Structures are given as C-alpha cells and as structure tokens.
UniProtKB/TrEMBL annotation:
Database matches in Pfam families: Peptidase_M1, Peptidase_M1_N
GO molecular function: metalloaminopeptidase activity; peptide binding; zinc ion binding
Keyword Protease: yes
Keywords carried by this UniProt record: Glycoprotein, Hydrolase, Membrane, Metal-binding, Protease, Signal-anchor, Transmembrane, Transmembrane helix, Zinc
Protein name: Aminopeptidase N-like isoform X1
Limits of the Aminopeptidase N-like N-terminal domain: 149-345
Native source organism of the sequence: Biomphalaria glabrata
Amino acid sequence: MSAKKSESTDVCDSQLDLLARPNDRSRCHMRALAGFVFFILVATGAFCVCVVIYFTGGYREMINRYDPETVSGERSDCLRLASQGYKELCEKCPAPNTSLKGLHMKRQAEPCLPLIDYSASSTPSFNIQQTPTVTPKLTNYRIPTSLYPTHYNIEIQTYIAGDNSANFFFKGHVKIWLRCDEPSDNVTLHLNGLTVDYSSLGFYSKDLDHSSPNYTDWSADKKRNFFILNLDDFTEAGKTYVIEMSYTSPFSKELNGLYLSSYKGKNKIHYQAVTQFQPTDARKTFPCFDEPAIKSTFNVTLVRPSGFTSISNMPLINNSTTLVEEGVTYVKDVYAQTKKMSTYLLAFVVSDFSYIQTTTKDGVLCRAWARQEEVSNTAYALNITTQGLAFFEELFGVSFPLPKLDMIALPDFAAAGMENWGLMTFR
Ligand SMILES: *[C@@H]1O[C@H](CO)[C@@H](O)[C@H](O)[C@H]1NC(C)=O
Ligand SMILES: *[C@@H]1O[C@H](CO)[C@@H](O)[C@H](O)[C@H]1NC(C)=O
Ligand SMILES: *[C@@H]1O[C@H](CO)[C@@H](O)[C@H](O)[C@H]1NC(C)=O
Ligand SMILES: *[C@@H]1O[C@H](CO)[C@@H](O)[C@H](O)[C@H]1NC(C)=O
Ligand SMILES: *[C@@H]1O[C@H](CO)[C@@H](O)[C@H](O)[C@H]1NC(C)=O
Ligand SMILES: *[C@@H]1O[C@H](CO)[C@@H](O)[C@H](O)[C@H]1NC(C)=O
Ligand SMILES: *[C@@H]1O[C@H](CO)[C@@H](O)[C@H](O)[C@H]1NC(C)=O
C-alpha cells in the first residue's frame, strides 16, 4: 500500500517537472506525452481524492455504531464546540484498533464526534460553511474542578497471554467518587485514546438520591483530551456523586500510558505490561482528572493471566478470584487503597519477573524485580535502597509512609527511572 503510494508520487513529480519545462524538440510527440501525463495526473488525483474520502469519510460506518437516541444531543454539542473553534473535533476520529474477539462489548464508539451532518437544517443558527477559518487560540487547558475526585476504583484486565502480541490489548472499568464543590451541569474528565463502552456509562449520587441529575449525552474535546458528560440539571455543592464507565484500548505504541515491554528469552519473547504516566498519560489508561494538584485515593485491581505476576503502588490484599476467558485463566489481584496522591504517580506492571527482597529496620518491605536470569544482579541496588531510605527518613524526619517499596528494571523504558510512589520503574 505505502509502496504503491510513493511510486505514484514519484510519477507525479517527474511528470510535473516535464510539464513545467516544455520541450521544443518534438512538439507533436510532446503533446501525446502531455496527454498521457495529464491522464496519469488525473488518475492519480482521483486516487488521492478517493483515499482522502476513504479515510476522512468513514462517517457512515461510525454513525451506524452510535446510539441513534443520543446522536442529536451529540451533534448539537459538537456543533456548539465546533462553533467555539474546536472544529477539528468533528473532522477525524481515529478508532483504536482493538481486537474485541469474545468480549461481547455491547457498542463500540470513539470518544469523538464525527457526526456533523452538513445538510442538517436542525441547527439554523450555525452553518458550518460560514465558520471563520481562523480558530481562536486555545489557552486554557485546565480541567474544571467544580467536581473534585476523592477516590477511584480502577480495574484493568491485561490481555497479554500467548505469543501473538498483535492481539494484546487491555480492558478497564473505572468508578470515580466526585465531591461537588460548585454546582456543575457536566462532568469533565481527561481521556485519551480509550474506546468507551457507552452502554456502561453511569452517573448518580452516592446515596442514590432520585432528585440528583441524570446524564443526557456526552461530548469530546480532543484538543484538551476532555471527555464531557452533560447533565440535565446542576449538581449540588457538598454532595458526592459517582461516575463509572468501561472501556478498552490497544496498548500504547509509545513508552507511555500502558504499553508493552518485551525481551527475547531462551525460546520465546517475554512480554510485560508497564505504565509510565508522568506527565499526562494516566488518561491513556483510565479516565481521570489528570492534573498533579488533584489528589485522590485509588483502589487498583489488576486482572492478569495466571502465568504472570502483577505489582502496583500498594501491597496485594486479595488474589482469590479467578476467571477463565477463551481458555486463559486470569487472576484478580486486588491492591490496598493508596494514600491521597496524583494520577501521574500511579503505576503497575504485569510481568513474569522475579524478585529478591529485604525489610528495612522500620519494617518496610523492599523488593527488587528483574527478569529471572538478571535478578541476582539487583542485590546491590536493594542494599543501597534500604540504606538510602534510612538516610532520607533521618534527614527529613519523616518515615516512609508506605508499607512497601518495589523497584523494577524494565527492558523498554523511556526515562532513566520514574519515582512512582511505592513502585519505582527503571530502564
Ligand atoms: C486492525 O485489526 C484488524 C482486525 O483485528 C487486523 O486485521 C488489522 O491487521 C489491524 N491493523 C493494525 C494496523 O493493527
Ligand atoms: C462544564 O462545567 C464547567 C463548570 O463546572 C464549565 O466551566 C465548563 O465550561 C463546562 N463545560 C462544558 C463543555 O459545558
Ligand atoms: C433521573 O432518573 C431517575 C430514574 O430514571 C428519575 O427517578 C429521576 O427523577 C431523574 N432525575 C431528574 C433530575 O430528572
Ligand atoms: C477476597 O475476595 C473474595 C472475593 O471477592 C472474598 O470472598 C474474600 O473474602 C476476600 N478475602 C479477603 C482476605 O479479603
Ligand atoms: C496470592 O497472594 C499470596 C500472598 O498475598 C501469595 O503467597 C500467593 O502466591 C498468591 N497467589 C497467587 C496465585 O498469585
Ligand atoms: C478500597 O480498598 C479498601 C481496602 O484497601 C477497602 O477497605 C475499601 O472499601 C475500598 N473502597 C472502595 C470504594 O471500594
Ligand atoms: C550491604 O552493604 C553493606 C556495606 O557494603 C554490607 O556490609 C552489607 O553486608 C550489605 N548487605 C547486604 C544484604 O548485601
């Protein structure tokens, strides 16, 4: 495909060159050639237009996947946002390429709104043809905090069993408790590249009060990675609300968010699912309020294939639940609630690594993780860790607040190290 494309560009270039410098030598010959060139140009042009239409105009397929009941609301929101200058919102909607075999997700849709109906007459006040071509510069990227997240329950299932990493992906469910500080008629979250299962969306008050607002529809602000749930009324200051949703995503293609790391073992490739959230990639792994000043507690549950182990910021507290999907046994690793912390310091790793461990004199469990054959080389690091921890506890007069500290050496890691709280990751 790409080879073909570049070939046709080559043809374009050389022929354009010919046309630009007409040759006197044989006019007749040139005319025939020019005609041929013209034909090629037209054909190439048509091909390009088709390609453009193919990639930008997948609207029909996408529209078919949306719930018709919410489409009008979505469209009006989109048009409103677009009229405010976020026009690019509606122009493209790349869907994560997720294998959903055997998942039975009810409906897949992208957190974007490629739904502008150019012929629609339902919005007479706004005509897309007349929008100014200059979009106002977006200066405020801050997330509204009228609803402040106090706690998250996050469950993430990593599909990394087997040898075919092309089929690997992850599935998540997040439930967020929101304290209302100021009335708001929407919930605005960060989200980037996740495919939300809209049938799983829920918004309600913590005490299930019937007078609390319901959500009407959702919209997206791709530029700011906002996912906006619109409510039919204002929330009440002082009350706590809950938002929840399920989603899927391929692993990140970059070394951030939740991505796949790997190394070549003796007879197979070993895969690890690894996180790197600093500065703004927690939103690639779960919908969240992804600003460092916003601090919450987190209950993390990792559902991993039975041949793997998982680690996270806090100690494991339960692993007694198992489930079987497509012949693969998964174990639910439940982690203790974290301290109040920023999203970017959350971390987890699913791997088949091993570890050595020691305990500081204050009872903090320290473990150094590495691939099986390298784990003996981590002894020095572990020794230094306990000494370093004791040194800084004394220097600052503050004892390490977590019951454990894991450190893991990863084959694929962008930075030299990352100070996730309770789970430090290293290259
Ligand atoms: C996207 O998914 C389809 C079906 O699972 C697969 O055939 C195709 O190779 C995938 N494309 C990429 C670029 O991963
Ligand atoms: C959502 O509500 C906040 C106030 O809570 C407001 O600042 C923001 O503009 C609203 N967003 C949209 C898209 O209406
Ligand atoms: C929200 O929906 C519930 C259940 O459908 C209903 O009882 C309640 O009155 C609705 N709330 C508002 C503010 O309309
Ligand atoms: C672990 O989880 C299972 C299933 O949720 C539950 O029945 C069990 O009581 C839990 N065990 C502990 C020690 O919390
Ligand atoms: C479950 O956790 C306990 C300790 O919390 C550990 O000893 C055991 O190996 C774990 N079981 C599995 C299947 O991972
Ligand atoms: C979070 O986990 C703790 C155990 O660490 C548990 O006591 C608490 O009920 C959990 N919170 C929620 C909202 O599930
Ligand atoms: C750690 O290093 C110190 C100083 O080099 C040494 O005395 C001690 O035995 C080491 N401890 C371990 C567990 O390796």
